[in-house]
Specification:
The chain is mainly α. Helix content is 86%, strand content 0%. It has one domain.
Amino acid sequence: MNKLLRIMFIVLIVAMTGAAIMQLFFPKMMGSKSEYGIAPGWQREIGFWNLAILPILIGVNLKYDYYFLRIVVISLIVGGLGFGTNHFLGFIEDGIKTISLIGAVENYLLVLFWIIGLKIESSKNRLDKKAFQ
């Protein structure tokens, strides 16, 4: 796996672990910072979702397989586009909520880095296949 993807996965694993802890143990505090308000059950659900995704992210880092790496990165791209768009729509609905705009920009930048990392990996994979022919 190329260095950009490796760094991106490490950053994501750390961020999702921290978010899961905060959402599971401090859901009211997390909800108070959210544009959607305080909904502890919803915050905990997001925390459990983060915990469910972590083994996939860790696994793809521990054992390299181009096919599964590509599936995981494409899923992260789709999720990032969805989350970013949701944040952007929240900002459009209420322009005072700049945190939503920051969330949109953050997610769109992550998508850009995932795409760049996947393109690098795809090029590397094609070169490796040619070397074995």
